[in-house]
Write a structure and sequence with these properties.
The protein is α+β, with helices and mostly antiparallel strands. It has helices at about 45-60, 80-90, 160-180, 200-210, 280-295, 320-330; strands at about 1-5, 5-10, 25, 30-35, 35, 70-75, 100-105, 115-120, 125-130, 145, 150, 155, 185-195, 220, 235-240, 245, 260-265, 270, 275, 305-315, 335-340, 350-360. Helices cover about 20% and strands about 25% of the residues. β6 (about 70-75), α2 (about 80-90) and β7 (about 100-105) form a beta-alpha-beta unit.
Amino acid sequence: MAVTGATLYRVEGISASPGPLWDGAVAGDFLFTRELCGTRGGIEAQTREVLEALQRILQARSLSLQDTVKVQLYLTRMEDYAAVNAVYRSFMGDHLPPRSTVEVPKLPDPNGLIKAGCVAYRGSKELYRVEGISASPGPLWDGAVAGDFFFTRELCGTRGGIEAQTREVLEALQRILQARGLSLQEAVKVQLYLTRMEDYAAVNAVYRSFMGDHLPPRSTVEVPRLPDPRGLIKAGCIAYRGPKDLYRVEGISASPGPLWDGAVAGDFLFTRELCGTRGGIEAQTREVLEALQRILQARGLSLGDAVKVQLYLTRMEDYAAVNAVYRSFMGDHLPPRSTVEVPRLPDPNGLIKAGCIAYRPFPGKSGGDPSSHSTGPEPKGPERSTESRRPKSAGPCDE
């Protein structure tokens, strides 16, 4: 299935997480897989199951796990971390790209102990390590360079309270980026996991001291545990070497706050992840999908250009209801997606949080100035956006 330059495809015979979603999305030189739940056996068997499934998805487009530049793992029991790593290493060998591993309460498959997905890159890659980073020491590479994009691993804080750990991980991310001539001012998407949502305001204060007015799309959710038992925060980012367009769309009710709503980097658009704020799960699902649609439309794209979608639910019991609303927005365009349960979202009323990555190649503008792109038709009527070039003051929920 081709979508404005991207190709969505399905691979037959994958047992992990069967369903209507497409297994992979090819967008330029990048390939995004859906995140697959294990379905059978113990943790070692399920880890093999999902990694074999990912390998097959990649092989269907002549890639392999050795082409990955970022891996995401969700575990329902952090006690399984060492066992997962042993199986993971047997598949990956010495190719250990930036990875994120966090614990979540539940996965869509009630038998699931692990969920895994990845981003791969067709082209020359550089994986590198930076000496002396205290946060989350281990065998993983700290950064991956894929074209003009940079993926960092997600780092756990290891020492002190939440302010100290937030500084620790942001300083470590800064060092990873500086090792290749970038900084946090080149970030186009940031991911934060907290073990206590009560720390949200304190984290934001430290975060703002590092980021200044550069506040790219971000996601913050609470998780029960991180790999380091001392960890209160885990952070990672995607950065881009080249012109960027960070923008805001007025009138989005979901999750008002100071962050920019979208970031255009090359041929990709990253949205912030939006919390629902009002009503039940169906109303909140419509609210966040309508908001994502408006963010995309402000740059001439739509949900039909999404190549990866992230959903966080506070109750996995809402999964079927969310899917019904989701399908009404997406139709047959069902790109790779991740859905997991988390204990809490930044907005205390939030039942769902959603964000996406969209892709639209612009002829002759590979990595060029987004403002010079031909963005297609303008949104109509109430969908027309008004931009503000500076974020506004913080609201009750900034994502």
